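Handover notes (outgoing to incoming on-call)

Open items:
1. Short-chain dehydrogenase: sequence verified, structure written out, both below. Nothing else pending on this one.
2. Nothing else urgent.
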Amino acid sequence: MIENKVAYITGGTKGVGYGIAKILLENGVSVAFSGRKKGDVEKVVTELKQYSQNVLGIVSDVKNLENESETVKNIIEKFGRLDFVIANAGLGIFKPVDQLSADEWNEMIETNLTGVFYTLKASVEELKKTEGYYITISSLAGANFFENGTGYNASKFGVVGFTQAAMIDLRKYNIKSTVIMPGSVATNFNGNIPSEKDAWKIQPEDMGNLVLDVLKMNPRVLPSKIEFRATKPNS
Ligand SMILES: NC(=O)c1ccc[n+]([C@@H]2O[C@H](COP(=O)([O-])OP(=O)(O)OC[C@H]3O[C@@H](n4cnc5c(N)ncnc54)[C@H](OP(=O)(O)O)[C@@H]3O)[C@@H](O)[C@H]2O)c1
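Short-chain dehydrogenase structure tokens:
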């Protein structure tokens, strides 16, 4: 039963996080989501209220542990509990390794990898109380390396290893953990503007439905690592 449970999704202002927020709200879950800019967060709260009133938008940068701890406090104040944490926020900068700057490397690693740890660090005591669920969004780039992908590949391979090791630590507390590794999703990632050309891709709602299915699984089973791809890639 997932009705009346509470989810926190990092990076819910657009793309994958937005799609997950929409589907969870439609299915009776209260949703808190984050983004870095107040104006964007407020706009998305208004949009998401068409699906359910039980939505909370919070300005938080996953690179900042204090932000994440404050966010979890706000969620508990508003909803009283936290059941599902979806560490989704991420970005990609794609350049040959000799042209990738230290700042670009740090931005990816701190957001995509350290951020995933900070979000768990801030929420794990609440997840213990609810015997909740921790889901991370890695990528097929967390298993397959490619040209211009050094920083992104490193961060996403890292998320796969991190989540699987965390899964072993956390299941002692009846907390489940899953790493989802999507292929191409029709989002704003890497400057993309979603349009009809993206019809072949995974859609943000597909990500939401996958998360919903995972959360609804019988407590005795745990899909710890999921590769999720478009049926017919258009490449
Ligand atoms: N799109 C794909 O093809 C694809 C494939 C595999 C995996 N993924 C992964 O899916 C996740 C979501 O990406 P997306 O495709 O939905 O991209 P997107 O459309 O660009 O959305 C990224 C989201 O992350 C948030 N975000 C970025 N940095 C943040 C930070 N430091 N703190 C808090 N929020 C932050 C953004 O919010 P603000 O800009 O409002 O702060 C936005 O809501 C990423 O981890 C990405 O690596 C994407």
